[in-house]
Amino acid sequence: MPSPNRPPEPWNSFLQKLDSAVDTAVRLDCIGGFVVTQMYGLDRPTADVDVVELAPRNAAETIMNLGVRGGSLHKKYRVYLDRVGVAHVPENYEDRLTEMFSGTYRYLRLMALDPYDLALSKLERNSQKDRDDLRFLARTVPFNLDLLRSRYSTELRWQLGVPEREDLTLQLWVEMIEEDRIP
To answer: pLDDT tens digits, residue range 61-92?
Structure first.
């Protein structure tokens, strides 16, 4: 499992540079592979921190401008911030956030979605990498499938453009997780 105190390099140096660029607390709500690797220990490379929310706005703009793909920090460290505009996340995800690397940075607060919200944020895209992350999370946590279904139906489904398609995807995911559990 990764260190709870600080991320490995080059992430730590990259995040320290972002931290030194602001003078107020900045909350980054993180999803994606960065969270799966840093919070849950999946051993796979990732070059970005997917962020669904940054606050407050002025400091967030500073952070994004510095950490953007193709920017000077990306060129130096080969990692970057990616503001995700299209991912849907469960409605009350903010109530379940966990701070990553608490106390490591003066101003940055990297907040991770809980494992169910993180998995559900991958539902619409449903790429092979997303399914691999889901399988890993389902084994590591391990998932309560009733909670996954409930959170989907009460906090996410209403947000989706084609909920019937995602209903089928969720059902396939549940079947995949159940098959993985058969000895």
So the answer is: 899 999 999 999 999 999 999 998 778 999 99
Confirm whether 4 is domain-assigned: no
Give pTM, 2 decimals: 0.92
φ, ψ dihedrals at 108, nearest 5°: -75, 135
141 with 86, same domain: the answer is no
CA 4 – CA 23 distance, rounded (Å)? 24
Domain extent, residue 102, equals 11-114
Average pLDDT estimate for 2-6: 67
Domain termination residue (choose one: 98, 114, 130) = 114
User: What's the total number of domains in the chain?
Assistant: 2
> Could you tell me the maximum CA-CA distance found in the chain, to the nearest angstrom?
53
CB neighbour class for 122 (10 Å; exposed up to 12, middle 13-18, buried from 19): buried
